[in-house]
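tl;dr need the bound structure. longer version: we got a ligand (fe (ii) ion) that a collaborator sent over and nobodys looked at where it sits. i said id run it. heres the input, straight from their email, havent touched it
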Amino acid sequence: MKGVLLVNLGSPDSPTAKDVKPYLDEFLMDERVIDVPKILRNILVRGIILQTRPKRSAKAYKKIWWEEGSPLIVISEHFAVKVRAQTDLPIALGMRYGSMSIRKAFQELADQGVDEVLLVPLYPHYAMSSYETVVVKALEEQQKHFPSIKVTTLPAFYHNPDYIRVLSRSIAEGLEDFDYDHVLFSYHGIPERHIRKSDPTRFHCKIDGSCCKVNSVAHHTCYRHQCYKTTDLVVEALGLPQDKVSTSFQSRLAGDPWLKPYTDYEFERLAKEGKKRLIVVTPAFVSDCLETLEEIAMEGKEQFEEAGGEHYKHIPCLNERDDWVALMASWIRDWQTEHILPV
Ligand SMILES: C=CC1=C(C)c2cc3[nH]c(cc4nc(cc5[nH]c(cc1n2)c(C)c5CCC(=O)O)C(CCC(=O)O)=C4C)c(C)c3C=C
Ligand SMILES: [Fe+2]
Ligand SMILES: [Fe+2]
């Protein structure tokens, strides 16, 4: 029997430093997130970052936490319930980090007699620290504990026409009541080094975008390329004026150079250029989370206004929108009946 395994990033069990610490430990000790030799990662994560970050992150999580729990988890659960209602096969939800593990979700499917799984990393774009780590972890769990289950993976869907239609509609709705001067597409950042590491040709990706007009297999795994593609396709679909749109990258950790331009610098630049009314969209995330609700909707607003901006709006992620649920259900049915995957 076929079944589906939806996987999102995960959250701590509660917004306290006590629960944030083990969650961040699992997250940041992932070799695809902090990709330095293990001994160095240990010193960096356990000896330095985890000494102070859990307290700071817990404070941020407290600002966005809902009565039902972490927004990312609650939204993902609601999404799974709604997708289940539109399909007739078992659907489980797991998280890459934290207590709702991928292994438990596999077990749920196995208990229902599933022996063929569609793995759905809930990320539109490929990055080794998001999509790839989900796939690697799921395949590890499958090989170790569920060797008789066959796994097929949904590809990154950053340029899929149906996804672009749904994303564009959600953005168009957000633009309706807001006379904007500028629309900022802010994606989660990654270290520039990750782009080079994910380039199978080892020479295509140049980080500055000069490579992106040349067709290459490298684009299948180039996070930067894929983010700009999503922006371009939405801009085209909505007919947004080119001079009123830009793309940036948020949420960097200190240290190496991350993808530029940095979102927080963009807030300042746009405000200083006289853009008074700013819309921010965050398409790297399918569900709202700490990085959108706190960093963008709260902190971003403050940064923009402090720099002279006047009106600021964050458009929510796709979350549990009916058209997004219907699209996921249609991808699942296509795979279930004809083994077709979205391109
Ligand atoms: C080296 C560090 C990090 C990389 C690389 C990274 C990539 C990455 N992350 C997401 C999605 C999310 N990240 C979230 C939180 C978060 N991310 C990092 C670090 C890296 N992420 C940290 C330390 C945290 C925790 C919060 C904090 O302390 O600031 C979240 C939110 C989780 C939630 O519970 O709401 C998401 C979602 C992507 C898509 C990505 C690569 C493209
Ligand atoms: Fe992150
Ligand atoms: Fe490129």
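gonna send this back to them w/ a short note. Residues 38-64 form the longest helix (27 residues).
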